[in-house]
TrEMBL record:
Any Pfam family the entry gives: HTH_Tnp_1
InterPro entries: Homeodomain-like_sf (IPR009057), Transposase_8 (IPR002514)
Name of this chain's protein: Transposase
């Protein structure tokens, strides 16, 4: 079964929808099933994005992507730098 990619707006709105359904008298488990995600996903969203607005979540995701890109660039450059340092020491 394929996984669905949720947009930041959905990640923020879905837990709020659960809150509305619970306030209307549904159990938490039934409300989570009604929005179409698993309890694990709901708990993860609550823990990671609880209290954030959709633009804050979008910005956080952009920063995480940029951070991964920079880490990869550093990892690619580190061996080259070490080789050049060793070569420089060998000539002295």
């Amino acid at each position: 079964m394929g996984t669905k990619k949720y947009k930041p707006e959905e990640v923020v709105a879905e837990p709020r929808q659960v809150d509305v359904l619970v306030s209307q008298g549904q159990s938490v488990a039934d409300a989570i099933r009604a929005i179409g995600v698993t309890e694990v996903t709901y708990d993860r969203w609550r823990k990671e994005f609880g209290g954030l607005k959709s633009d804050q979540v979008r910005r956080m995701k952009e920063l995480e992507t940029e951070s991964q890109r920079l880490r990869k660039a550093i990892a690619d450059l580190t061996p080259d730098t070490l080789i050049l340092q060793e070569a420089g020491r060998g000539n002295v």
